[in-house]
Design a protein that fits this description.
By secondary structure, the chain is mainly alpha-helical. The chain has one domain (2-446). Helices cover 83% and strands 0% of the residues.
Length: 456
């Protein structure tokens, strides 16, 4: 087990640092915009929830490149990797058009929030700015999926750390105003992110043309048009993956839209709790990505028992670390919240939600690593069905029933934003348990098929 843990950790830590650098964008935005105004902080929470839903759903489709390229890499079929990357870039261009239209015209989604006009106007401004950065984000996702697939996550980490170094000064200038530029508040944070996303995309494409590690793939050696056979293969795996991401994130997005009905203070407290949960999520996400890479490469090399063992150890590692994180958050909860806001009312609203985040995170660690293992086996439809039933049915539906006390029987401590967070935690536990069971069944089935084939 220790050998597998070391292998997973060797790939996971660069992914974790890179992901923390990116999630620090949200932390920095929340902390800085929160000091600009409470209205802008609430608009940031609402706008970011919608953007994340669109971004995650579309990038989830492009993430299909990782298990595809990982298995090809394990089988030493290098030129096919280059072809898959070119097709993924065409797919990213098509998805960018869809995402841009959703973000630039967000009014139908904002109607659900019934937010005050001032909050709605600031949210629209935020979303229209980030819409222009979405194509760059999708192109960078292709780059990161490839580098993770071939076991080179440090190449993503370096760029993400560089982006973080740019974020703080750009935010300062654009949020609060400097050098003759006006103070833009929340939209200023969106503009800073947009500029950085384009920088990341351009540098990522240049890296794929210059470094020796990518040379065997011949990615940009020649031009090619979209090839339907390869596009269909990526979509067959990517669409269910994207839907899984979308279901997971929209459950959180609609939480924010419904919680907005409880007022700006409650929504701001929810934004803090959600941001803490997002930071914690980066560790199991990184372990899931690393485990998926190693499992896919082992499958490509026909080392099926090694793939099964790596999967089991990766999931156990993620859940154990999540429990440790939970104890730390419990001990430091008041200090953590104080770092986000000086507003006593917002801090009071966030306090019970952060307590629930501890349980939420352990469940999240189980479900995300189990899902990544299934994707390494190119199993994506079953996790999507599990997510739909658990997160939309139990999480969102149950959260609505608790939060708004639909039946008139819910204790007061389970109503409001707390009801949504409790129901969402329960849904993640259900999704994680079911995904882990399906993962174990699939691994046994693959092993049995290969054993029969070898015996025949």
């Amino acid at each position: 087990m220790l050998a597998d843990v070391r292998k997973i950790a060797a790939l996971a830590w660069p992914v974790l640092i890179g992901q923390l650098a990116i999630i620090a964008f949200g932390v920095i935005d929340t902390a800085m915009v929160g000091r600009f105004s409470a209205t802008d902080l609430a608009a940031l929470g609402l706008g970011a929830s919608i953007y994340i839903s669109v971004y995650i759903g579309l990038t989830g489709i492009l993430t299909a490149l990782q298990p595809i390229a990982g298995q090809l890499y394990g089988a030493a079929r290098y030129e096919e990797i280059g072809e898959e990357v070119r097709q993924a870039l065409w797919l990213a261009a098509a998805l960018a058009v869809i995402g841009f239209l959703i973000l630039y015209f967000p009014q139908p989604l904002l109607q659900l929030a019934r937010a005050p006009e001032a909050l709605r106007a600031r949210t629209v401004s935020y979303l229209q700015i980030v819409a222009f950065g979405l194509p760059a984000s999708l192109a960078f996702r292709v780059y990161s999926s490839l580098t993770n697939a071939v076991g080179q996550p440090r190449l993503v980490m370096i760029l993400q750390i560089g982006a973080l170094l740019l974020k703080l000064p750009l935010n300062t200038v654009l949020i609060f105003g400097a050098f003759g530029l006006p103070a833009l508040g929340g939209p200023g944070a969106a503009l800073a992110s947009c500029l950085i996303n384009w920088t990341l995309a351009v540098v990522g494409m240049l890296v794929m043309t210059k470094l020796d590690v990518f040379r065997p793939f011949a990615i940009f050696r020649h031009f090619c048009w979209p090839v339907w056979r390869r596009q269909a293969a990526q979509l067959k795996l990517g669409v269910p993956m994207g839907l899984s991401y979308l279901i997971e994130v929209t459950s959180y997005t609609f939480m924010a839209l419904f919680i907005a009905r409880f007022g700006t203070t409650t929504l701001a407290g929810h934004q803090i709790a959600g941001n803490i949960g997002a930071v914690l999520y980066m560790t199991p996400l990184s372990i899931g990505i690393a485990t998926s890479t190693l499992v896919a490469q082992a499958l490509g090399a026909h080392r099926y028992e090694a793939a099964r063992t790596l999967a089991r150890h990766g999931i156990a590692m993620a859940v154990a670390i999540a429990c440790c994180y939970g104890m730390i958050v419990l001990a430091l909860r008041p200090l953590i919240i104080a770092g986000y806001t000086p507003n006593a009312h917002v801090a009071q609203a966030a306090m019970p939600l952060v307590l629930i985040v501890v349980f939420y995170h352990v469940c999240d660690a189980l479900q995300i690593t189990s899902a990544f293992v299934l994707r390494a086996y190119r199993v994506a439809v079953v996790p999507t069905v599990i997510y739909a039933v658990a997160l939309w049915g139990v999480g969102l539906g149950g959260g609505y029933a608790l939060g708004f006390d639909v039946g008139g029987w819910v204790p007061e401590s389970f109503t409001g934003a707390r009801g949504f967070w409790l129901a969402n935690s329960a849904s993640l536990l259900i999704a994680g348990s079911r995904a882990r069971l399906v993962s174990a069944q699939n691994q046994r089935a693959v092993g049995a098929r290969r054993h029969c084939a070898a015996g025949g």
